[in-house]
Every structure is written in structure tokens, then in C-alpha cells.
Amino acid sequence: MAKRKSKIIKLVIILNIILLSLIFPIYFLINIVFAVDRSNHPEATVLLLSNNTIGRDNALWVSLGIDPKIHTIPFVNPENSLGNKTSDLYNLNFSNIDVVIVDSFLPQGDDLDYLLSYINGTNKSTGMIFFGGNYSENSIFKIRNLLPIEFAINKPALNLTLYEFFTNQTGIPEFPTQGYLDYIYSVTKPYEIVSNEAQVAVSKDQESLPDNQKSIYSKRIAWQSCPLIYERILTYNTKKNQNAITIVEVPNTKEPLMAKWNYPNNPTTEVIYLSPGTAYLYEYKDGKFVLNEWNTPFHLWPYFNYLIYMMVFDVANLSGFGDEQIETYAQWPYSPIPHDKEAAIWMIFVASLWVFNFVLFFSLGKSKRKINESKSLNSQSNQPVNSQENKIQEKSNKI
């Protein structure tokens, strides 16, 4: 019995050594056969304006660092920089910057004017991706013309709405006082941050279009899998009269969550707006300021990193690189799904297990048959040879 166990152990060890010796050559072979050729894929440089320090806690910094084709230059809010911000916007070489991502921070005064001159076409047509956040009113009012949405109620529209409601209800043809209209608008916030939960859905406008006219964002991303959105800038409408498109919205409310346009005053500048934010921001709760991360489930969503990749190369305005050249979710090497290489490794691993099990099974079966044959021979050799003596013995026992 001990001898049999020893043989089995030796067999298992030999099979394991064979499998281990084949792993590395097979792995390198798979890397060669299934290597993803991205040599023709261009690179993009991104300027990240962030309210948070640069590190693992900065969701956009982490996401931008996944694909080596994206190079990121951080510019952190001086109040939160802790020594890791770019020293001065004026020291940046904007000729090499393809995209500006605004993440809950905008510079003030002349710095902001200088930045906008490289986005609005004055000095350059740099693409922009704008995330929701807690911005200053002055900065918001300076940049709002670049955005494809309205997050502050338009005064003439508000006045007309109130006027029509008053005249329809009372029958009086004239509104009693212009001062009341001015008061209503004066107490209206320039923009409002909300934190109620909201579902995400492809906009009705996008759904109504044929596939060849839909945005790549509505076609390539499974928005039905997107988690609930919470903290965001409340957005009233998309500037559709200026060819802006709503990509995703809160269902049944028409509240835009993601919108895009080519800036009308300089159509080569592409701008994407997302009302949800992803930054850490201080919020006043229960008499004190608390640091809160906006929309954690959103930036942990499996499609989030791919969404960042798509937006960067969509608005970067790189020559000869359009929507069709942007990799799909299945093609992008960093999407969390099995690609050709991983699938091949997995199949080889499963096949190796099957071979290992079959070899072990047949080897043990052969060993077992030999043992049974040996036992059978031993039992036969122990039987009485002389059957006549057995008969005589039986008769004597009867007498």
C-alpha cells in the first residue's frame, strides 16, 4: 500500500513539473500571437484642472493613468495643492495640450481668461470635458457660454413663463409690475447643486435616431448598467437650438446629465458636459464641514474608465482620428473583460487541467488493475492443491 502511494505522489509531482515548465513558454507565445498592435493609435495630452491632490484618491487622475496613450498634466487648486500643483498656467505649453478636463476647479481672473483663450479659438481650439462640481459663481459665468447646456434659468424665458401664466389665469393683458419679475430672477441661483438620487438613461432624442446618426456614447456604452447618480449640477436644458445634443438624461424629467456640442463661435472646439462630479468636496453638514466624495459608484462603474478614454480622443481633434478609429469596449485593452489573450490563457489552463486529470485517472486505474491481479493470484495459490485429500477428510468427519 505504501509503495502504491509513493508511485502516485511521484506521478503527480512529475505532471506538475511538466505543466509548470510549459506555463512560461506558452505565456510568452500567447503574448506574441495575441499582441495588440496600437502603434497607429495616436497619443493625447490632457490638462487636468482638479480640486483634489494628485494620488489614488483622485478618480479622474487614476482613470487617465490607465491607458499609456494618455499623458496627463495636473493643475491642482492652490488651496488644496500641498505642493504638487503646476506652478503657473502661463508656464504650460498649450501647443502640446489636446484636452482640458475641468474637475471641480477653475482658476480665477486673468488665469481663467488665459485658459479660455486656448479653448474658444482665440489662441487654439483645445477640446474640453467639464465635470460637475462646486465652482465659484464668477468662474461659472465666464465659462458658461462654452458649455452646451443651461444650468441657470434664462431671464427672458423666466419672464415670459411668468407673464403667460399670469395672463392665462387672470385674463389681465399686462403684468402688474416689472419689479416682480426682476425680483424672481434675482433670487434664482446661478446654478444649483443637488444630491437626490437619479437614474441614468439614453436620451429620448438619441433613441429616436437611426443607428448611423446616434452618438458613439449611446451606441457603445451600456448606460442601463450605470449606477444611480447623486451629487450633480442641476441642469435645466441643452442648447439644442445651437446644435447641442443630449446624450444621457434623467428619465421622465429631461434633465441632461451628459451633453456635447461643437462650440458655435469656433466649431473646431468640441465640448462635453457631465453634470455629475467625481471629486472630493467639503460639504456643510450638522454644523461642520465634512469631506465627501461625489458619486463613488459612478467612477467605480466598469464603463467609467472607457468613457474617459472615449471622451479624451473624441474631443482631442487629432488629425485623421475620428469616431471610427476610437476603440470599442471590447477592443480597448484595458476594459475589464476577457480579451483574446486572456481567453487563450484561460482555455489553455482548462485544457491542461483536463489532460492532467485524464493522465492521473488512467495511471491510477492501471495501478489499481495490477494490484487486483496480484491479489487474485495470491488467493489462488493459497487454495488446497490435492482435492482428493479434501474429499477423504470430509468423509472422516461424517463418520
Layout: helices, strands, pairs:
Blueprint (H helix, E strand, L loop, with lengths): L1 H32 L10 E7 L8 H6 L5 E7 L22 E5 L5 H9 L9 E5 L5 H7 L5 E2 L4 H16 L7 H9 L6 E2 L6 E2 L1 H4 L8 H5 L11 E2 L3 E2 L6 E6 L4 E8 L7 E5 L5 E6 L2 E6 L2 H5 L3 H12 L24 H42 L5 H12 L1
Parallel strand pairs: 1-2, 1-3, 3-4, 4-12
Antiparallel strand pairs: 5-9, 6-8, 7-10, 10-11, 11-12, 13-14
Structure description:
It is a single chain. The chain is elongated, with a radius of gyration of 35 Å. Strands 2-1-3-4-12-11-10-7 form an 8-stranded mixed beta sheet. Strands 5-9 form a two-stranded antiparallel sheet. A two-stranded antiparallel ribbon has the order 6-8. It has about 400 residues and is α/β, with parallel strands linked by helices. The protein contains 12 helices and 14 strands. α1 (about 1-35) runs antiparallel to α11. The longest helix has about 40 residues, at about 340-380.
What is the number of domains? 2
Shape: elongated
Average pLDDT, to the nearest integer? 80
Rg (CA only): 35 Å
Number of helices: 12
Largest sheet: 8 strands, mixed
Strand order in space, largest sheet: 2-1-3-4-12-11-10-7
Poorly predicted regions are none
Number of strands: 14
Helicity range:
25-40%
CATH arch. level architecture of the largest domain: 3-Layer(aba) Sandwich
Report the order of strands and helices: HEHEEHEHEHHEEHHEEEEEEEHHHH
CATH topology label of the largest domain: Rossmann fold
Percent strand: 15-25%
- CATH C-level category of the largest domain: Alpha Beta
- Class by helix and strand content? alpha/beta
Instruction: Report the end-to-end length measured between terminal Cα atoms.
Output: 46 Å
